[in-house]
Amino acid sequence: MARRNLNGLRVLVTGASQGIGRALVLEAAKRGCKVLAAARSQPLLDELAAEARKANGTVQTVVADVTKPEDRAAMVAAATQHFGGMDVLINNAGIGATGHFMDSEPEVLRQIFETNFFGLTETTRALLPLLKQGTTPAIVNISSVVGKRALPARSLYSASKFAVMGFSEAIRAELAKDKIDVIVVSPGLTQTNFSKNMLEQKAKMQLDHLRGMTSEEVAVATLKAVERGSLDVTLTLKGKMLVLVNRFAPWIVDFFSKKKVRELFADEITERKKKQLEAAAAK
Hints:
The chain has nine helices and nine strands. The protein has helices spanning 19-30, 42-54, 69-83, 106-132, 155-174, 215-228, 237-248, 250-264, 266-282, and strands spanning 10-14, 34-39, 58-63, 88-91, 138-142, 181-186, 190-191, 213-214, 232-234. Helix 4 runs parallel beside helix 5 (155-174) and helix 7 (237-248) crosses helix 8 (250-264). The longest helix has 27 residues, at 106-132.
C-alpha cells in the first residue's frame, strides 16, 4: 500500500468519454497526470482531449472497446507510444441493466459480464507487463455499492460487480510481490448518463440518480484513494450505511428489500391469491 504523488504519473482510464470516466480524465490531467483516455467514441474523445488541453493537461486518446482483444492491444501500444509505459490503470468502463432476473434475457447478462468483468480482467492482464515496470503502480477497479450488497432488480449488474470485487481481492495479494496496489472504489448513486445507457430498464422502482454524487466528486474521491493508497473505498453516506448495516445485520436489508418488492407487486400478489381461492373453491 503506497502513497503517491500524482504529478507526472501515467494513467489509463477506460470508459473515458462520459460520466465518471470523463471526470477522471479531466481531474487527473488537472493534477498533473499524463492521461491516456480510452473509449469507443472518437468524437467524444476528441471533445474530451480538447477540453483537457485547454487547461494545459496532458491527454492522449485511443479508440478502444475493452471487450475486444485487438482494442486492448491498441491500449497497450498507445501507452507505450505516447508515454513509454503506464503507472495507473483505472478500469472504469461498464454497462448495466435493471429489472427482475426472470424478466431478463440471457444475452443481457452475458453482455454485462463481457464488459464489466471480462473486459476489466483482460484489460488488466494486457496492461500488467507495463504496470510491473511502472512508478508506484496501481490498478483501480471502479465497482459499485451493489457489488458489496445486492439489491432487487439489480441482480445482473450486481453479480458482475461482485465478481469484480472477488477478482480484485485475489489479485491484490498476488500482485503484492510486484508492488502493484489493487484499489476498489464503490460509488453509490451517481449523477451520470449511466441509467440512460443501460441495456434494459425493467425495474418497477427507479433509483433517483440526481440525488447521488456528481461524477466530479467520484473522480476526486477516486484519485484521493490512489494518492493515499486506500485499497477499498465506498462512496456516499447511504452507500456506507448500506454496507455497514449489511455487515452486522444483513437480515435488516433482506427484510426491507422483500417488503419493497411485495409493495411494488401488490396487485400481482392479490390476483394470485384470488386465483388460488377460486381454484380451491372449485375442487
